[in-house]
Amino acid sequence: MATLPESALMQRAAAGLAAVCARVLGGPYGSRVVLLVGGGDNGGDALWAGARLAHRGASVDAVLLRHDRVHPAGLAAFRRAGGRVVSSADVPLTPETQRAIARADLVLDGMLGIGGRGGLRDDAARLADAAAAEAGLVVAVDLPSGVEPDTAELTGPHVRADVTVTFGTHKLAILADPAAQVAGHVEFVDIGLAPYLPEPVAGMLEPVDVAEMLPAPERNSDKYRRGVLGLLAGSAQFRGAAVLAAGGAAEGGAGMVRFVGPDEVATQVLNRWPEVVTSADVADTGRVQAWAVGSGLGDGRAAEVAAVLDTGLPVLVDADGLRHLPETLDGRALLTPHAGELARMMDADRGDVEAHRLRYVQAAARRWNATVLLKGSTTLVAAPDGRIRVNPTGTPALATAGSGDVLSGLAGALLATGMEPFDAGSAAAYIHGLAGQAAAEGSGLPSASAVLDALPAVLAALHSAR
Ligand SMILES: NC(=O)C1=CN([C@@H]2O[C@H](COP(=O)(O)OP(=O)(O)OC[C@H]3O[C@@H](n4cnc5c(N)ncnc54)[C@H](O)[C@@H]3O)[C@@H](O)[C@H]2O)[C@@H](O)CC1
Ligand SMILES: Nc1ncnc2c1ncn2[C@@H]1O[C@H](COP(=O)(O)OP(=O)(O)O)[C@@H](O)[C@H]1O
Ligand SMILES: [K+]
Q1: Which residue puts its alpha carbon closest to atom 13 of ligand 1?
Q2: Fewest CB atoms within 10 Å of the CB: 82, 234, 339, 368?
Q3: 319 in the Ramachandran plot: left (φ > 0), alpha (ψ -120 to 50) or beta?
């Protein structure tokens, strides 16, 4: 801001915002737009964008949350463009306001942006409800008002947006749940901040990042260069988990999978994946470069999990394996709980973990000195040094029994290539999410086997993106 003329950034933001509104309206001419305007710069963005829409023939009404605090230049521009203020002094929710919202094709939510904390209060909350219940589209300015910008938590009443137009950089609240669930479709407007931004608190992989992490088979490859995974999974009760995890590894590029488990499980794994080598005991497994343990392991088996952890190799621990964690790990482990499992690990309530996903995943990574991948509607990966990644791929269709087993085999295969746990976990979540999306395109609600079947094509496409 110090290097630019006054309000240049706001003009860039408002221009991008008005362009998105014009597009989703199918052209602003003749449309009805209502602005919900808070006392800060978020309200200023809304007013400037409203002025632009009014210039292009929209009928624009503004509801001011506070008449004593409103962006002065924005309000003046809005009035010059023919915009009307429909609220009376300090009474935002007049009958006229309600009628305007009910008739609106688009409500532009400029109540709170990155300055907002602690949820919407009173009138603001009622305006958000009215917009959700009665208006056409709700477009949030920068963030849905009322969400916590930096923690992605929902601590009080908030707007539910159909579209969020965010400026300068992505905020955690539009990437991670629960807040991201109320952001709708996200549009990014570049206002030129990138060179000035500090290190981000969280990262998000793009296809080329993942492609560059994946090892390409080289001319002089052998199975050890591709990575050999030891797999301790499945039980008489959960045989399929072993089959799916072995598949996640085999289709995920492992040079070889060495399976450890009871005969009746090994037979089933071999029926589906004849390339797998089996043994009955961790000690007899032969050379591996990483382990994946836990999927479908059932009760007990603590000694086997301990034997794997004692090898000192990189290790992924999933599902029932998470019951047998030592006091602390030494940075080489990747733990892959869902919210219920993380709640049990942290002696917390599942609902509390879901409401504070970021806080819990970071706390667990510190607590065990391990990388923690928290599964669910948005997958978060936390390294013990504080780094965070939010996974952008996936679909609710992945919420199907066994899809976590596929992920554990896949992530284990990536660990076995020598990738650090943070990269292995976040790349695996990315690829698994794409496979889920591809499988869902086929059948709508795919099985875990369909997710597995989609892996090779997804990996091939990523390799070619390199
Ligand atoms: N910083 C920048 O470089 C840019 C910021 N822009 C806009 O400016 C916004 C941030 O503006 P502000 O810092 O003025 O903050 P906001 O407009 O988000 O909030 C304004 C004020 O509301 C009060 N407030 C906080 N929580 C509240 C609550 N729960 N209920 C009622 N009042 C509450 C606080 O006093 C806060 O300062 C961004 O979200 C974005 O929309 C854009 O114009 C582009 C450039
Ligand atoms: N609502 C959701 N939206 C997107 N992905 C989800 C959702 N719920 C679960 N998933 C994903 O589906 C997979 C399910 O894994 P998990 O809970 O371990 O199931 P299981 O143990 O039955 O295989 C994980 O990758 C998780 O991130
Ligand atoms: K907003």
Answers
A1: 115
A2: 82
A3: left
Q: Which parts are annotated binding residues for (6S)-NADPHX?
A: 241, 296, 338, 405
Which protein residues touch ligand 1 with a CB less than 6 Å away? Answer: 1, 9-10, 13, 38-42, 45, 112-119, 121, 141-142, 167, 191
Where residue 227 falls (left for φ over 0; alpha for ψ -120 to 50; beta otherwise) is: left
Q: For residue 273, what are its two tokens?
A: 């994946």
C-alpha closest to that of 320 among 297, 337, 340, 345: 297
Q: Is the peptide bond between 178 and the residue preceding it cis, with omega within 30 degrees of 0?
A: yes
Summarised one tens digit per residue, pLDDT across range 212-249 is 999 876 767 777 778 999 999 999 999 999 999 999 99
Are the CB atoms for 397 and 436 separated by under 8 Å?
yes
**Packing angle between helix 357-368 and helix 339-346, nearest 10 degrees?**
50
Tokens of 437: 């999306």
121-133 in b/e form (b: 16+ CB < 10 A) is eebbbbbbebbbe
Measured CA to CA, the distance from residue 46 to residue 163 in angstroms comes to: 14
Q: Which domains does the chain have, with CATH numbers?
A: 8-196 (3.40.50.10260), 207-464 (3.40.1190.20)
In the structure encoding, which two tokens stand for residue 64, read together? 């001011």
The length of the chain in residues reads 466
Q: What is the pLDDT of residues 448-460, one digit of tens each?
A: 999 999 999 999 9
DSSP 224-257: HHH-EEEEE---SS-HHHHHHHHHHHHHTT-SEE
| CB crowding 427-458: b at 16 or more within 10 Å, else e | bbbbbbbbbbbbbbeeeeebbbbbbbbbbeeb
Please give the structure tokens belonging to residue 142: 């920068």
pTM of the model: 0.91
Task: Please tell me the residue having the least CA distance from ligand 2 atom 13.
Answer: 404
